[in-house]
Specification:
The structure is a single chain. With 220 residues, the protein is α+β, with helices and mostly antiparallel strands. 38% of the residues lie in helices and 28% in strands. It is built from 7 helices and 8 strands; from the N terminus they run βαββαββαββαβααα. It has helices spanning 15-22, 51-59, 87-94, 118-130, 152-163, 175-182, 186-211; strands at 2-9, 27-34, 40-47, 64-73, 76-83, 103-106, 109-115, 135-142. Strands 4-5-3-2-6-7-1-8 form an 8-stranded antiparallel sheet. Strand 4 and strand 5 form a beta hairpin.
Length: 220
């Protein structure tokens, strides 16, 4: 099955598209979502300088029925939004494309990475066209069986991030500088690193638990 990476432009008719474009430096990380009820619910982490104002802007949309704040910090909020306009999720699900969480929306754009049959990929393109959702095909490659923990792109970006000091303490480069140096969008850079970090950490903890049941540290 082909591995596919799409850059999707979220329409202004979906509130998160308009809000994120009005606040291009703010990240909207969608942690969980459901689209199988009359109203749809999503849990979202807002990462930016003025999350309170952004929450109020979201509440102002007619399609947003309710917004609940679960966690609040100076530059972030974790919220739950109940909405009547789940256009993006509907279009993806109707094509049989799994939407892996979390994913990030920034400045009205998101990156979709998936390994799906060619038929579903074609149906996805047709469905996005039908809904008037603009997208660009960033990458398609036939995925081969591999024991590698990370994809080639995740491995490349993680290696570049390490070499350029992104994981140093203190950091020698920022996410913005890393993305600029590698000529990729900041949101794409953030999402690829997040997925790579998730896989590495989960694999590490699996190994730890196998050696130390319960994950607890032991001493001699």
């Amino acid at each position: 099955m082909p591995y596919t990476e799409l850059g999707i432009t979220i329409p202004d008719s979906i509130w998160i598209g308009e809000v994120s474009r009005a606040n291009p430096d703010t990240g909207f990380r969608v942690l969980a979502a459901t689209a199988n009820t009359a109203t749809r619910v999503a849990r979202i982490e807002i990462l930016g300088d003025d999350p309170t104002t952004i929450c109020e802007a979201i509440r102002g949309y007619d399609s947003v029925i309710d917004l609940t704040v679960f966690e609040a910090d100076a530059d972030s909020r974790r919220i739950q939004v109940e909405t009547t306009v789940p256009l993006l999720m509907t279009s993806l699900q109707s094509s049989g494309v799994p939407l892996d969480m979390p994913f990030e929306v920034r400045d009205g754009e998101m990156t979709l990475e998936a390994t799906i049959p060619q038929q579903n990929l074609s149906e996805l393109g047709e469905t996005l066209d039908d809904f008037g959702i603009a997208y660009t095909v960033e990458r398609i490659q036939q995925e081969v069986e591999s024991d590698s923990l990370l994809t080639d792109r995740q491995l490349w970006l993680l290696d570049e991030a390490i070499d350029r000091g992104y994981y140093d303490t203190p950091r020698r480069t920022s996410l913005v500088a890393l993305a600029d140096d590698l000529d990729i969008a900041k949101s794409t850079c953030s999402e690829i690193l997040h997925r790579a970090e998730e896989r590495v950490l989960k694999e590490y903890m699996t190994d730890v638990r196998e050696i130390q049941p319960g994950g607890a540290a032991t001493s001699d």
